[in-house]
Amino acid sequence: MEPKESASDPGPSDEGRQDALERALHAARALILADLEAGDVAQADIVSLVEEAVTHRRWWVGQWPEGVAFVDGLVAQDVQDSLLERYGRWPICPVCVGSDPHALDVEPELGVEPHWVCGKTSTVVARVGYLSGKL
Q1: I want to staple 83 with a disulfide (CB 3.0 to 4.6 A). Which of 16, 27, 54, 90 is the partner?
Q2: Those residues with Cβ within 8 angstroms of residue 63's Cβ, 6 or more apart along the chain or in another chain
Q3: What is the pTM of this model?
Q4: Mean pLDDT score of the chain, rounded to an integer?
């Protein structure tokens, strides 16, 4: 029989939290890179934007450890914002074909299991990281 955890158990160690954070950041990086590849826009300068977003979110989660669950969507939004400032909209909505191209949105904005969604039709296109075959 294993001993019960005491009420004063401090929970995961700092090292354990750091490992979990790094795993989450690596996973977020991989998901966003997969979506960039799906849109054929994963050039070196754009991959650098992903690295900048991951670095920023590493600091952010250091300040709010409970936010680690939201890293996928936040990194996606950070990269999307950086691309808009430098290159234009991404990813372009594959649902609405017409004269007014627009980018997909990440929903929920701050939540788990983020998806790319058409903001005009509320159509879920794919989970973040799974745009392959959708664009």
Answers
A1: 90
A2: none
A3: 0.85
A4: 89
| Cβ proximity of 131 and 33 under 8 Å | no
Both tokens assigned to 98: 């017409």
Averaged pLDDT for residues 4-25: 69
CB count within 10 Å of CB 89 equals 13
Q: What is each CA distance from 97 to 92, 120, 124, 134, in whole angstroms?
A: 10, 12, 16, 13
- Mean pLDDT (whole number) for 67-74: 95
Residue 37 to residue 40: CA distance in whole angstroms:
5
Report d(CA 82, CA 127) in Å as an integer: 20
- State yes or no: cis peptide before 65, omega within 30 of 0: no
Three-state DSSP class for 71? helix
Is the per-residue pLDDT at 113 higher than 50?
Answer: yes
Quickly list DSSP for 103-127: B-EEESTTSSS-EEE-TTT--EEEE
